[in-house]
Design goal:
Blueprint lengths: L8 H19 L2 H10 L8 H19 L4 H24 L2 H29 L2 H20 L3 H10 L7 H20 L3 H24 L13 E2 L6 E2 L3 H10 L24
Antiparallel strand pairs: 1-2
Helix pairs in contact: 1-4, 1-8, 2-4, 3-4, 3-5, 3-6, 4-5, 6-9, 7-9, 8-9
Length: 274
């Protein structure tokens, strides 16, 4: 097997571009974790988006090792596994006992248990091209389910008439990521890569249209605190009660850092098919 698929130059080009923009998405939460390090606290952030990001990268890297000429998928997802593991390690180190226990529980169930079940089942039950197709469609189902998570943000924007929790640069980046990886899958004739990014593109366009509609609107006042937008996969996360209580006791009015998306989605995820 060739290291790079030079027989499909357009796929190779879009694969390189996909790696570059996905690297940017993976680095998006870095300022948040710098603040976690400086404050020696997770500040109410949730570990779930990063566990989902790690799980996604593990699945796609498994698929890339099986599929021919998929080196560019291996490179970005191996980096994804590394950076998401680093984020989770920092989170667990500075988390409260309750948050640490919850994070370890998620990792045990999803990243060890579920991923091990998928790897073992597909390895022993299927062979050759059938195994590649089964693993690929498992990746598609997971990617589509994660891409659907930001629909909560869409509902939130419409309800509150506020785009505070749907930053435009994030929507543009995720849309561009979906377009690039769709083109990679299209020119490589890989439906498992192309299909979920169609949904990613449509969702990104929906977010940008909503931003244009509501950017100058007067927000509706909500009784409850609005959730924050996360990276890589775009999953909603809420501050932990104990962290809010601690902040109340200290009488501080610190603004929450804006998480970037799976990845914050976003996300990645990155929940692109990379």
């Amino acid at each position: 097997m060739a290291i790079f698929d030079v027989h499909h130059p357009l796929a190779f080009t879009f694969g390189i571009l996909g790696n570059l923009i996905s690297l940017m998405v993976y680095f998006a939460p870095l300022p948040t974790f710098v603040r976690i390090y400086k404050n020696k606290s997770t500040m109410g952030f949730d570990s779930l988006p990063y566990a989902v990001g790690l799980f996604s990268a593990m699945l796609w890297m498994y698929y890339a090792f099986l599929a021919p000429n998929s080196t560019l998928l291996i490179t970005i997802n191996s980096f994804g596994c590394f950076i998401e593991t680093l984020y989770l390690s920092i989170f667990i180190f500075y988390a409260s006992k309750k948050a640490r226990a919850q994070a370890l529980k998620i990792l045990a169930i999803m990243n060890l248990g579920l991923s091990g079940l998928i790897f073992g089942f597909t390895y022993f039950m299927f062979k050759g091209d059938i195994r590649i197709q089964v693993v690929g469609w498992i990746c598609v189902v997971f990617a589509v389910s994660v891409f659907a998570a930001p629909l909560k943000i869409v509902v939130l924007v419409v309800r509150t008439r506020s785009v505070e929790f749907m930053p435009l640069p994030l929507s543009i980046t995720l849309t561009l990521t979906a377009v690039i990886w769709f083109c990679y899958g299209f020119f490589k004739h890989d439906l498992c890569v192309a299909i979920p990014n169609v949904l990613g593109f449509l969702l990104g366009m929906m977010q940008m249209i909503l931003y244009a509609i509501y950017r100058n609107s007067k927000p509706r006042i909500e009784d409850k605190k609005l959730p924050e937008l996360t990276n890589i996969t775009s999953i909603l996360q809420s501050p932990e009660p104990e962290d809010r209580q601690q902040k109340s006791r200290n009488c501080t009015c610190q603004q929450h850092p804006q998480p970037a998306s799976q990845l914050d989605t976003s996300t990645p995820v990155v929940v692109s098919t990379a």
